[in-house]
Amino acid sequence: MKKWFWILPFFFLLMGNLNIYGESLQSFDAQIQVNESTPSTNDNYFDLQLKPGQESTLNVLVTNLKETEITIIPSFNRAKTNQLGVVEYSGRNQDRPNKLPIDIEKIVSVDKQKFTLAGHEQKKIPLTIKMPEKDFDGVIAGGLYLQEEPKEKTQGNIQHVFSREIAVLLKTQLNKIQPNLELKKAAPTQINQRNAIKATLENTNAAYLSSARIHYEIKKEQQQTPVLTGTQPISFAPNSGTDYLIFLEGKEFEPGTYQLMTNVKNKEINWQQKINFTISQKTAATYNEQNISTTKDEPQNNWLLWLAGGIIFALVLIIVFLLYLMRKKKR
User: Residue 170 in contact with residue 131, Cβ under 8 Å?
Assistant: First the structure.
């Protein structure tokens, strides 16, 4: 049971923005429309090189796949990196952006706020672009986010909706720059009553970090054996930052000074960084009292399992004894 404790926080972290794909699964489709004046280098999203000051309109064809009418809410949002190291375009999650050379939300707009599609109806959704007057290095990124408006009332944090997102990447030059990931700080935290370390990571360049993995180690001062190690996939949007979460897999906080070491790499880059942080006695006590995933619960769980097994075994013995008495009486 211990290994499941560290998986649960990821589920609960996403609950705040969870969309359950129930009956509305695949309720609509969205495809980019090729624009001859501004051709994209990809068929699934817009990857465009435009001139400074250029204006353009992009179209996305939205198709209702259902027999019944649906309502869709569109929005255009800057590409962000969430606390699990995933790039997303919903606009719901907050990241830690460093200096944005250009805010794509100010140069790309979606005309419609909400629209309705009859059964199997199609509509083109226009995106209007007004490029900055000057050249810029790298890429600025955002995305069209399309969400079906739920017809049923939501229960708690769960919504029965379907959503799609189409990325929009804009550049004025073909020169490719590499991402640059910096580890700014680390500190203890708690998410949904589960202990974690938040590592503030920032991608300071206008470039995506993709197909990468992060390996981390946490060591207590003057100890050689790591308190925690792990490896996870990670990605970053251009010019974005986040408090990346490292869950403690059911462990409690212990006061002291620690060192977090991170190694992020893919085929092109390899960053190794480390930073010290402190967990105070007060912080450890506060979080540990609220932590529901502590492994200290395991002995109690084992005791309950043994008790249940003992009860079942006793019932079996009683049944066998009663059957024996019944047979003996018949004789």
Answer: yes
* Secondary-structure breakdown of the chain: helix, strand, coil percentages, each rounded to the nearest 5: 20, 40, 40
Distances (CA, A) of 96 to 80, 181, 223, 243: 9, 13, 32, 8
Q: What's the predicted TM-score (pTM) here? A: 0.77
Using CB atoms within 10 A of its CB, is residue 210 exposed (0-12), middle (13-18) or buried (19+)? middle
Q: What is the pLDDT of residues 272-319, one digit of tens each?
A: 999 999 999 999 999 999 998 765 544 545 666 677 778 888 888 788
Residue 58, classed as helix, strand or coil, is strand
pLDDT digits (tens, 9 = 90+) for 103-133: 999 999 998 789 999 999 999 999 999 999 9
Split at pLDDT 50, 70, 90, the class of 209 is very high
Core vs surface per residue 82-114: b (16+ CB within 10 A) or e: bbbbbbbbbbebebebeeeebebeebbebeeee
- Residue 68: how many CB atoms within 10 A of its CB? 11
* Residues 6+ positions from 49 with CB-CB distance below 8 Å: 171, 172, 173, 174
